[in-house]
């Protein structure tokens, strides 16, 4: 006879992988709140100092800074960063690529390259292919921002619009990233003509100041106009809070921040975010925790039904609910297992399910394990398998259930 158990709810973790705060991890910063993602800018100059010679290992050493250790990463490539040294490799500059000086009160100054020049574009497309070869299958890379073109890699050169890449170049760069990173979710800054795709996620870098509103340039209106308000169901949305404004938006602006997360289905916020603010008032810390638990996915298991079939197999149905605002965006497998009294796995199976399809609302999983061994204190457990073995924390459920070695959540003793 089948048994049905209600599974106890618990608070969702504040540092579950691939959601929540994605903070700067460079020296000088402090993480005052739990952080699960580390954000890294990378310049083409840094990564390809000589044609075909790549400095991947040196770049990845930055990922081992104390604040980034054990965390998945989000990457953004840039070529032009106002008021900072160029991101162009010297060998590209030496090839004769034209650069135009700009100096504005809005963004500062620099030398903007001619994006359409084949002396820049052709080696750039080759670099993107190499970039994907290195990082598409890298288990630590969570998401990628399209970056590359425009100031800060944000696909604009405002207020000097004439310096932006042509639409043809934009489309070639997008196609190159799509080919190089077929498995990594990619965010674009805006749903422009060249970046208006069903497979793209988007990032708002002025959360929540421009997230809502009615102006055409604001984030939600721009998604609406482009027909991309449903992209969150298959591609992540995230972005940066307005720098130095965390206290405002966790204070009197709290309703606006909540509304932005709800309506835009944000999974992560950073690199500027409340996690790097020191001495937040207790009420604002509590609000920050509330926001993290709501962002992205939040899986709570609600009910377990299990029993032995006529042929001896252990059959079960596991029900739950995604209490977040978005699904999980990577193809990580779910496992159901049997653990002995020392938490050793004695049987396991990967049922047919896809976490990427667990939209907000209920979900259900069915599994059938071979006839369980006759062992004392045998426990039924479940886990989500992170392909990166170095992760500081496994994905955990919003349940008051024990989590043991290997990230297994124990459901019941058989």
TrEMBL record:
Residues 200-399 form the DUF4832 domain. InterPro entries: DUF4832, GH. Pfam families: DUF4832. This is DUF4832 domain-containing protein. It comes from Armatimonas rosea.
């Amino acid at each position: 006879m089948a048994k049905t158990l209600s599974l106890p709810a618990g608070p969702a973790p504040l540092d579950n992988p691939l959601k929540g705060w994605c903070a700067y991890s460079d020296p000088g910063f402090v993480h005052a709140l739990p952080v699960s993602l580390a954000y890294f800018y990378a310049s083409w100059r840094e990564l390809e100092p000589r044609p075909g010679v790549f400095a991947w290992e040196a770049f990845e050493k930055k990922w081992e800074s104390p604040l980034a250790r054990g965390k998945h990463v989000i990457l953004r490539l840039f070529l032009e960063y106002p008021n900072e040294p160029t991101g162009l490799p010297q060998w590209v500059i030496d090839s004769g690529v034209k650069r135009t000086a700009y100096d504005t009160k809005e963004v500062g100054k620099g030398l903007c390259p001619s994006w359409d020049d084949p002396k820049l574009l052709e080696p750039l497309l080759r670099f993107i292919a190499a970039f994907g070869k290195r990082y598409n299958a890298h288990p630590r890379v969570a998401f990628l921002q399209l970056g590359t073109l425009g100031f800060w890699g944000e696909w604009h050169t405002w207020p000097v619009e004439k310096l932006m890449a042509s639409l043809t170049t934009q489309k070639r760069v997008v196609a190159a990233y799509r080919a190089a990173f077929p498995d990594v979710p990619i965010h674009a800054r805006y749903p422009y003509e060249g970046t208006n795709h069903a497979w793209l996620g988007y990032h708002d870098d002025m959360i929540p100041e421009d997230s809502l509103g009615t102006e055409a340039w604001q984030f939600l209106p721009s998604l609406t106009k482009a027909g991309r308000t449903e992209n969150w169901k298959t591609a992540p949305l995230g972005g940066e809070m307005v720098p130095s404004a965390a206290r405002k938006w966790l204070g009197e602006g709290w309703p606006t921040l909540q509304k932005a997360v709800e309506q835009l289905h944000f999974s992560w916020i950073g690199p500027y975010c409340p996690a790097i603010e020191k001495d937040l008032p207790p009420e604002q810390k509590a609000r920050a925790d509330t926001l993290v638990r709501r962002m992205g996915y939040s899986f709570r298991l609600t009910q377990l039904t299990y029993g032995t079939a006529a042929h001896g197999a252990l059959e079960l149905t596991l029900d739950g609910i995604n209490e977040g605002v978005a699904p999980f965006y990577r193809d990580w497998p779910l496992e159901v297992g049997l653990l002995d009294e020392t938490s050793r796995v004695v049987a396991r199976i990967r049922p047919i399910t896809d976490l990427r399809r667990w939209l907000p609302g209920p979900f259900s999983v069915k599994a059938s394990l071979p006839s369980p061994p006759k062992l004392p204190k045998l426990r039924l457990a479940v886990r989500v398998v992170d392909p990166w073995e170095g992760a500081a924390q496994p994905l955990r459920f919003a349940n008051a259930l024990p989590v043991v070695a290997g990230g297994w959540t124990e459901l019941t003793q058989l």
